[in-house]
Prior knowledge:
Radius of gyration: 34 Å
Helix content: 10-25%
Number of strands: 37
Largest sheet: 9 strands, mixed
Strand order of the largest sheet: 13-14-16-15-17-18-21-29-28
Number of helices: 20
Strand content: 25-35%
Amino acid sequence: MKKINLLIIVLFTAINCMAQTTLDFYPSMFDNLATSKLSTNILADKAGLPEMLFGFNGSSSCAASGMEEFLFTYQTLYTGNIGTPTIPTPDAIFNSVGEKPTDVIPLGALYFNYNYIDENAFNNGLIQIINSQFFDGPNSGNPYNQSVCVALGTLYPDTLTQLVTFKAEPLRGNLSNNVSSAQINFADGAGYRTYTANTQYAIDYSTDGDYTITLKLNLTGGGSVYAKSLIHVSASAPLKSVAIGGFPSDYPCNNGIVPAYNNTISITRTGSMNDGLVKIWYGNNPNGTPKTQLTKPVVIVDGFDPIPLESVDRSAEEIYFETNFNSSYRDINKYSYCEEVYKENRVSITEGLIDRLKNLGYDICIVDFEWGGNDIMENVETLKQAIGQINTRLSNNGSSEKLIVMGPSMGALISRIALSEMSNHNTRIYISFDGPQQGAYIPMPLQELYGYMFSVINKTITFSEAVFALLNMPMKTFSALLFQVTLNGVVREYSPLDCPAAKQMLMYHYLGTSNNQPYAPHSDHSTLYNSIEGVYPSNCMNIAISCGDGHGNSQLGFPSAGADYLGYSTSSKIKTDIEFKELPTSGSLSPFMKLNVWQNALFGIRLNYINKEYKSFTTSSSKSYEHLPGGNFNGNYMLGSLLDKLSTGFDYDKYECFMPLSTAFDLSSSVSNNIFSEFNIPTGRNFTKNIYPSKSPFDMLYVCNENRYHVLRGPNPNADDNTLNSSIPGLTQDMTDFVVFLVENSENIEDATQSEVYNIYDIYQNSGIQYCSQPFNADLLENGTVKKSYNSSSVNISNVTISGSDKDIEVYSTQSITIGYNTTIENGATFKADYANCPAE
């Protein structure tokens, strides 16, 4: 239909008749029209007449509908009825949609005669618009055209099984009396059979593929009309509630990287979905042979893993051994399926963290929760039992070693709470690796869009809105985000954003935020974090690692606060516009997400079917984090790549701040994001012993020079191409060095000053060699940190015992070396003192 020059309308209306050409659509806009010339009693325009209705014209070449198009057609003809409709409400039809492919699938059928406004009605003065209302025009004549609609719909939105049972709904419409008989062809090779209301048809589709079901109505006056519906069938059609898809793999190799574990510890608790499994890989003896029992544990606690389905469960050992991926695995013949890994530059770590720890004799104990999306306090209890059983096994094996507990991401929060609640955790180091100590962040625009679509799945919004949303974004896009969990005998349906752990961790949640109000958390978040505020493990060193830029620089690809960072629109007949933006820092009420579903209707008017705008404002506790420094993450991944499914070719590939610096270090509110300056970190260093406990509760901090992927490896780690959608790998060689240094030297650095810690680190990284620029420390000689010492000043060695385990010790000075009181060199140890010039560092 061509657009009509709006200036012509002015000839027939007052100056204010057409104040705008964009109208928020509602059926009462047509209430003032005379209906005496409606021969069908249905004005389809009242529901926003879509052009697709013209494709359902009853011809043998008519268009085929999917479930969404059929529902829209039903909505249009129901709403267009001038009197009281005699057919069920659209909500009743929507609520009859099948929940899974094994249901009996309803078949809806319509045969309607309807009117619509002629495109020349305005030009001819038959209709006019006054104050966004339609009225009869000053001229006489019939402004309506007449057409027929024949539609068929299978009321299930996703893939059907090869064996499917359909149930025929009654033929509905205002022309049913014109039908002498009805037939249906399911495209199963059996041809046409009689279509009878409330009859079930068991159909066997022998092969996967697309099929067109055809309804044939034979008319009393002769001739036939047709309607078609397109379906897709597959022998492997998943249940709608567990059709999870679109999540990127953190572990790109199918197998071969994770070695067989040596032992396990099972944690079984009362309740449901709260068990755990500790998988143990023994470290190596000093001669390189594998140990045969647990003696020196490094406990790695699994993070957020919301989907408890084996097909998409990102098991902890796969994630961490893939992170360990290094040159020692480069046997392409054996691991050819990992070739893509090398293309993605995942071999930048010379020796992986797990390998290094195992070679130093440490045992790797990975705690994997039954459900990583469960209530955090449930998994805290599971971890407490796991730590208790690990300690019991240590004692039984005659080991006096203490634990190192490292929690990446959510594992850091669970570890913090568990260790804080244990009176005897036997832990010497707790490492929070980019942990949500104040919470995690997923952009509120993305959450609100997701929440809206989630309400489509749950059928908790109006039928009209659901239909318009489904028409542009099929329900299978959203149903694929759901999974079922049985908790205490009750089956519950969850999504990654709505599972218990997500509601607890997210600093803001769409279910806690009201439109036009500041961003707010879910009540579950407030309850949890209020209970642990300021509470950290005692009797151990508490270490925090952040993947964020300690200089405070913004994320790649995100503009400053208040700017748009996503604009998306479809080009279909019924269009969708989506806009995302961050809140400005001004504090004024501002939109952060817009969702508009609209159509260019007759007369050049744009009809808004869905016109939602979500607003908020900035406060001290409510602000956007998208562009702020911190470990980044593509929030779209968390939601099953929802945005990527909206339209073919559309790509949301942004890496927003997921774990802000402020939460990874649990910073006080007045501390800025310039971590290097705030904590007095010298140039060339990325870590510090924290001498400002009022700023952060951690004993030591590690921060990056740029924003990196949250915790582990990013899906696109090669960021050297300067593209805005790149994500630098989270784990670095320097981080690995830092963790190994901590594990090996915690007793030496616990009471050391900030500058002494740097000296100890340099000596350790230089294989035990101390240079003249570093002050001599007899304690480092005694504990074995220093193997060879060069000095430009006099050296006095007193109150020191050199044991046999320290092996060869060498001390050099350009001045003098004095062996003072209480200095002992035990059997098996060698000690050399001599003159030597300072070597180049």
